[in-house]
Every structure is written in structure tokens, then in C-alpha cells.
Amino acid sequence: MEIVYRTARELAELLRRREVSAREVVQAHLDRVERVDPAVNAIATLTAERALDEATAADERIAGGEPIGPLHGIPLVYKDTHDTAGIRTTYGSPLLAGNVPKRDELAVARLRAAGAITLGKSNVPEFGAGSHTFNQLFGATRNPYALSRSAGGSSGGAAAALASGMCALADGSDMGGSIRNPASFCNVVGLRPSPGRVPTWPNLTPWSPLSVQGPLARTVADAALLLSVQAGPDPRCPFALDEPGERFAEPMDPDLSGLRVAWTPDLGGTVPVDPDVAAVLADLPTVLSGLGCRVEPDGPDLSGGDEVFRTLRAWQFELILGELYDRHADRLKPSLRDNIALGRRLTGPDIGRAHRLQAALHERVGEFFTRHDVLVLPVSQVAPFPVEWEYPAEVAGRHMTDYIEWMRSAYLISVTGCPALSVPAGFTVDGLPIGLQIVTPPRADALALRVGLALEQATGFGQRRPDLP
Question: What pLDDT does 22 receive?
């Protein structure tokens, strides 16, 4: 197998045994970037020279018998909304085209301390807004399985780079589906962890659980390995979970015997799903039953979730981007301007109502998980759509009012506070990847990963690679 499609765990073991050097691993991935990224456009900033220098230092550390971290020598790309010291971080905006942070944010610092080697930054939509990766600076990221299609977003560059063999691991963030949707579109694995599982710092909204950071990888075991480094308490994050991250590096038991699984293809008919997506996922309940699960058709009552998500998202966008809006509204994409303007119009009672609705939703979801251990449903309501579109104008014949409505199957889960894993679940007749969303009770991230591992082993869909020129 090519080095670029080895798992991160395999590479880590090969590096420890000195059967391959970090420099060889990094050079292989840089060669892959050179060959395929002109077509895919996943990498916003490439740090080739720096990566090779880091690889040389990593080899010297191994040769000297020094202690090494769990990601030692593993090439990784950081999302271009995550601050990286000495490497430009544009947030996909011309307004920050020359922005070079002076410090790493917490998630980046943890990965570097674990030995990960920085290949560069992955492409994002402008300020991470929307689930299709395009911007004025770098253009659109294309789906490796069909270059005419979207790679999803906002972690679209990360997912496309992984699927293309340009990196072994990638970090991401997820407010309304920004890890899960690109993972689904690009046939990789992506976890939206429980809020507080991966602490964030600095953070202008430290008390908000809406946006979280998490791992993307080509296998569930690699996603768990990356999470083991990302996760763990930090006093600067006020609701960080106390549980150490190292537990996620341990072997997982894929035995699902007796697990109570609720399956809903469309959240009780409240979320339209294109027929091609529904057809791909139709056999998944049978697969789960074959793994020993007790599968029942059911779904939680998520009424009020739309208002919760849209209100709190607009409030957060205005809080973070309001000053830029005042100075440069004409240089922001229209959909982003609209969201910030909506945030400006919100009143205290509007925000209070959103919190009341979320509290009631939390109670209903809690009751749902007394009857079921796991919820499974589509990640995305559509297959990867043409890259020229900003968003699908309709889903299953239903008109979409704006650029986030087609993501309801993902963002309605975000407001529950539950962890959600996207795993490869099959391909349409046109060869487009489709992902399954595995949702577990709050803080039961390990269970979501176990279910994902069992499905990964049973189906093998994640082993299908794109046929790139």
C-alpha cells in the first residue's frame, strides 16, 4: 500500500520501528499534494519546507531515543480557521489574506506537542459560513470522487485532502455540520464531539456549546487517535470535560450485541431527504441488525431546533464578526452579511426564547435516550452537489429558503449537545459518497466511535479510494 494511504496508526508504528523515516513520509505526502491538489484545491497554504524541517527533527528525536508523542512524524493539515503561529490563517477571507498569527490556538498546540507535522492549512468557506467550501481567495475545493461536485464544508478542504491522500489526519470544527457534512461528501470519518470534549482557546464565546472542534480521518481508529490528543481538560475552557483524552487511543470493542438502535431516515418526515441518499442508506438497519443490534424505527422530537440553531448562530456570528461587518460589509459574501444583520436584529427575549426551547429539547432528547442507546440517520440530505452552486435550491422537491436549510439533518443534531459521528455508508449509482450519522447521548463519544468501527468493518465502504488524475 502507498505510504499516503496508510493509516495514521500504521505510520506511527512504522516510524517507531524505524522502518520508514518521517522525512520519507512527509515527502510522499508533499509529492501527492503536488500531483493532485491542482485538481482538488484542498490546501490553502502549503508549508513544504517547514514540514521537511520538522520531519528531519522528528527523525533525529527517534534516532536519539528521546520520548515521542502519539502523533510523532504524522503529517497533518490544520483548518484555515484555526490560528497557527507563523503560518498565515485567512479564514477564507480577503480581509485576512495576510494574517499571520503570533500564537497557536489550543487545539493546534496540542497536536504539535504530540509530534504532528504541519503540512499546511486546509481550505474553508469565508469565515467558515456554509457547508460548501469556496471563497474569493482560493476558489472552490472539489470533491475527489467527482471533481465537478462539492467537497462539503466548512471543513471541506480537510476532508478532501484526507480522501485524496494528501495528509494522514486533519482537524476540523463543527457548528451545524462542518465536520460531518464534508466527511460524508468525501467518504471519510468525522466526529462532532460532545461540547467540552475538545476545549477551545482563545474563544470569544467560551460558554457556548454550539461550535466544537474535532477530528477527521480515513478510519474510525485514526479519528479516535486524533481525538485522544485533542481531548482533555483545560482551565481556560469553562465547561471542558475532566476526562483525559488518552482513553480514546485504547483499542475499541466493536461488539454491538444487544445495542438498542433507533433508525430514522428523515426525522419522522420533518426533514426532506433526496431519494438517492435514502436508497444508499436503506440497507443500513439490516447491517446493524446483523451486528447484533435491536433496531427500531424511531426518532426524537426536535421541534424548536430550527429556531434555536438559527437564533444562536446569528447571535454568535454578529458577536464575532460584527466589527468587520461595520467596516467592510461590502467585502463579505451576501449570505454572511445577512446572518450578521439578523444577529443585529435579535432582542434579548429572542435569545431567551431560544434558550428555553433548547432546554425543552434537551429534556425530550434525554427521555429518548432512556429508550435507545444510539440514533442513526443521514448526515446530509443530499449527495454532493455541483461545485458551481452555493447550495442546493431544493431537496426532494422541497424549496430551500437559504444556504443552510439543506443541512437540517446535521444542525438539528448540533443543538442537542450530543456527539455525532459521520462514517462512510455507501455510494450512489453515480459513485458519489454518502455518510451515516451516528448520534449517542451527551458525553458518550466512545460509544459513537464503537458503532462506527463496527460498521466500518462490516461494510468496507471507507476503503474505496477516489480515482484522481
Answer: 98
Longest Cα separation, the chain = 63
Helix (H) or strand (E) holding 281: helix 275-281
Model confidence pLDDT, tens digit, residues 31-83: 999 999 999 999 999 999 999 999 999 999 999 999 999 999 999 999 999 99
pTM: 0.98
Contact 157, 122 (CB under 8 A): yes
154 is catalytic: yes
Whole-Å CA distances, 426 to 149, 452, 456, 460, 464: 17, 14, 11, 9, 10
271-327, pLDDT tens digit by residue?
Answer: 999 999 999 999 999 999 999 999 999 999 999 999 999 999 999 999 999 999 999
- Catalytic pick among 21, 178, 184, 380: 178
Facing residues of 171 across strands? 215
H helices of 329-383, where? Answer: 334-345, 348-371
148 tagged catalytic: no
- Residue of 255, 223, 251, 171 whose CA lies nearest to 423: 223
Contact of 133 with 151, CB cutoff 8 Å = yes
CA angle, corner 24, sides to 21 and 25, nearest 5?
90
Please, which residues have CB within 8 angstroms of residue 255's CB and are 6 or more apart in sequence? Answer: 292, 454
Q: Is 79 a residue of the active site?
A: yes
From the candidates 79, 93, 184, 409, give the one annotated as an active-site residue.
79
Rounded Cα gap, residues 267 and 145, in angstroms: 28
Q: Give the fold, CATH level 3, of 3-463.
A: Amidase signature (AS) enzymes (3.90.1300)
As given in the structure block, the three cell numbers for residue 269 are: 418526515
Distance CA 135, CA 179 (A): 18
> Domain map of the chain by residue range?
3-463
Q: Which residue among the candidates 21, 93, 154, 164 is catalytic per the annotation? A: 154
Cα(171)–Cα(178) distance, rounded to whole angstroms?
11
